[in-house]
Amino acid sequence: MKTILAFIFMFGLLVFIHEFGHMIFAKRAGMLVREFAIGFGPKIFSFKKNETVYTIRLLPIGGYVRVAGEDPEIIELKPGQHIGLEFDEEGKVIKIIVNNKAKHPNARIIEVEHVDLDHQLIIEGYEIDEHEKLSFDVAEKAFFIMDENETQIAPYNRQFASKTIGQRAMQLFAGPMMNFLLAIVIFFILGISQGVPVDHAEIDKIQEGSPAEQAGFENGDEIIKIDETTISTFEEFQAIVRDNPKTELDMTVSRNGENVELSVVPDSVYIEELDVELGQIGVYQAFHKSAIGTVKYGFTKTYEITTLILTNLGKLITGQYSIDMLSGPVGIYDATDQVVKTGFTNFLMWTAMLSINLGIINLVPLPALDGGRLLFVGLEAVRGKPIDPQKEGIVHFIGFAMLMLLMIVVTWNDIQRLFL
Q1: Where is the PDZ domain (predicted)?
Q2: What is the pTM of this model?
Q3: Ranges of CATH 2.30.42.10 domains, the chain
């Protein structure tokens, strides 16, 4: 149950922060945000506030913000169509009843001749059995009523395409940006609560019964040399230990101002996902509390993980890593289960890493991803005119279908690896 709650919290937080970025910058630019969704598929829960419907959906594979004009509007009025109109106090159309007009006895029934809900905001037509053409001004926040469901109209100035290249690019970039900011905040919180790592390779704690304890290491020891290699940072020390399982290492440590020689043989830990054995001696890095160091830690740790993920992504693209190494929701859940068992601090670190990963993946210039859509905005800036919306829509649809196929393959690989 603990893992389930942790996974739901983590997934919800990552998606919420990402989509919140998209939504807040869309609204700042004056776009009409129709829906803010966490998850895909059937609706589990929803409520409406102001212009936006907030939904939680069944499938935990992402989320979305639906902005007016980004996909085809569902309702379209055609000449000859009979509709009902209701008016506000200023005499403007506030409700456009598309069907079930009998449920709206106060509505004025009109046969449509001409409609412009993008720019002029007018409806022209005739009352039944009348020959005089009438023209009605439509309120900017008028609603369609279809099957008793309300859908707000979207004048062109509220649509995605009406905004400047800068506003559209910022709205698309805001999601990944918020993921990076979340990671920085998490590391900032960790820095406040536990301190930040010291600059040198100082040991803070030693696991009971570990190779380090057996070799005679003590709390506060600073590793300054391994064999003939000078050690400046804890990461350098970790890298050598990690790369030398079951191999005796001669270390020089500084203890109370004196150098002490110790020999240790790292245990071998098998990492199934990577099919490698890594060395481990059972020590923890020392931390200290510093206001300036905490701020620096938030940014440097985010940068380090970003660099690591980009390196691994490059290896995946060049074929050095197999697609079998990717994890979907099932694999991430299993990894979360393992991390939760090691404590809340590691869970926060895991959440920050996944947040960075989500931000990076969404910036990859593939159709349907934020990066792919940013690429089209960039092409528009270079060409001086937008790509045909229908052609762009087809590209994104194909890209989305391919991403869903990849998700299925990755999830199946997770299931095979974990359960079969």
Answers
A1: 195-268
A2: 0.83
A3: 198-288
